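Re: [help] complex structure
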Amino acid sequence: MTHPQPASGIFEGGVHRFPVRVYFEDTDLSGIVYHANYLRYMERARSDMLMLAGIDQRRTFEAGEGVYALANLEIAYKRPAKLDDVLIVESRVSRVRAAATDIEQSIMRSDAEKRELVTRAVVTAALIAPDTNGVQRPVRQPADWRKTFTSLMEQAKGDHAV
Amino acid sequence: MTHPQPASGIFEGGVHRFPVRVYFEDTDLSGIVYHANYLRYMERARSDMLMLAGIDQRRTFEAGEGVYALANLEIAYKRPAKLDDVLIVESRVSRVRAAATDIEQSIMRSDAEKRELVTRAVVTAALIAPDTNGVQRPVRQPADWRKTFTSLMEQAKGDHAV
Amino acid sequence: MTHPQPASGIFEGGVHRFPVRVYFEDTDLSGIVYHANYLRYMERARSDMLMLAGIDQRRTFEAGEGVYALANLEIAYKRPAKLDDVLIVESRVSRVRAAATDIEQSIMRSDAEKRELVTRAVVTAALIAPDTNGVQRPVRQPADWRKTFTSLMEQAKGDHAV
Amino acid sequence: MTHPQPASGIFEGGVHRFPVRVYFEDTDLSGIVYHANYLRYMERARSDMLMLAGIDQRRTFEAGEGVYALANLEIAYKRPAKLDDVLIVESRVSRVRAAATDIEQSIMRSDAEKRELVTRAVVTAALIAPDTNGVQRPVRQPADWRKTFTSLMEQAKGDHAV
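Output below.
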């Protein structure tokens, strides 16, 4: 028995590229992808990006050390995506701070003939963890995570493909 | 047999207030509402706001006259919402153009003691309709819709409750 | 400032009736409610039913005493629901066991002229809690919960409205 | 620039196997996959299965020839799935009728050491299309689709791997 694998992204020069297919669940009655669902695609891409970069969110969460939560998001909807479309979420780290990391994400639709922008977003993700009273608070990102993000950001700066 | 009614919002001085309860479906493993789901709450509030303002989206869509689609969204996540929380989505029209309307939306959690901001967003909604080739394109909003939105915006300016 | 309230259900003779409105998020490109979303409506109704019956799921979960999880579900899709439809989820307890409770749920669409069945389901919900190794296991429902469910079941038997 | 591809399933002796990874969006506060989301996984698998079998749902829908809708679903939840789990949806056609097809679907979690059943379902999917009044009605499946499904069912009968 062979083992088909779920979608996985790749890094190219600091830019992470992650594939998504549009299913019925993603569309609404207007025939196109429901606007909130692009945020799900972008979160899948960020999770894959972290995994490939060696950051284990599930282990960190289960150890009580925190979970990434969005602090801010700006998104521009440029072209609609439709059922069966194959999209690529392109992500690059654009800023690294003590408790938060900014990531630019573009969702592209590309085929042999053209390459089109579907949506573009900038998200700020902050690490939050329960304090001694159980209240979720922003906490400093581990030093090695900041180092990883900074390295990805430096690599992505040299890449103008996105 | 009595007929319980689904949630409905109200207008107060041009500001639309719409209630939402948080269910299991809205949360993720971090124990709080998944970030994309606030966009669903805001869309429910906008749909209710349009309905109360006399704009029938279903009829307009079924008549082939278009559907609102988001062109742009900015959202700041301030405090997490949790299971069973009762939230109020407060919406006010902030700008009216030929093909698009801007709406400011704040999600508040309030009880007897305090009133807290959960998330705040500005969304730009554009009316789109299929052109003669079936491609979705922005179209002018009907004159009476623009008039309705402008009136709501004027009323909301005088209200500093949000 | 008035406080609009989220939808709340009511009990009539042991039958719980909970209202839901269909929003864009619930539909798919075929123009009707996406099949998995009826399960969300039914879960909202069960959560409301438990709340009205005095069972506090959030407190129980936060106390580490468990959470309801579905063990089994059978659902028949009879008529499609559409954008803006107002639906009523009718729920009645049909069986109570040590660790699980069966609930029959029908989603109805009704207006002045007629009353139509949209979907009908039977769900088995089991209380699960982490054991000493952190593995989720079925646990006995508290005696007062079983008593509450049994009482609702007895009341519902005498009611043939559903 | 390389092109990462979205997940795709494979047929082995009439059994379709499709991979899914669990993301934050799929979980709820109990830390496991929200029950309705397994239906989304199963629908993705059926869409992929149809695509691989040469049935183009998007073209059929856009041509006004119909769309598959669930008529019935039975699902047993056996073990919870968690964040980052890699799951395989195994699907096999179990019955073919004029207007509907039954598909058995099991979601498995497997690693080097063991192979566990997460959920098992039987779904009945019916082809529906708008009649001359625009009302959705069940219609006969095209003869070549029935032939394809029958062939898959015959092949799957000889395969006891699931």
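The helical segments of chain D are 37-52, 57-62, 143-157.
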